[in-house]
Design a protein that fits this description.
Blueprint lengths: L13 H9 L31
GO molecular function: catalytic activity; molybdenum ion binding; pyridoxal phosphate binding
Protein name: MOSC domain-containing protein
InterPro entries: MoCF_Sase_C
Length: 53
């Protein structure tokens, strides 16, 4: 997880604050955004293998 010291578990938001300030105070978005193709039925679960085109 970003901004959490892996050894202590303490949140250290300095990196996120610096990135936000660099982007002129715009909202920060992290992650991967995907959607399922409607023509292909099925479900996606944690640990599912997916293919990106």
């Amino acid at each position: 997880m970003i901004c959490v010291n892996p050894k202590t578990g303490v949140k250290e938001p300095q990196l996120i604050v610096a990135l936000r300030n660099f982007r002129q105070r715009e909202k920060m978005t992290f992650g991967i955004y995907v959607r399922q193709i409607e023509e292909i039925p099925g479900e996606i679960h944690r640990d599912s293998k997916v293919h990106f085109e």
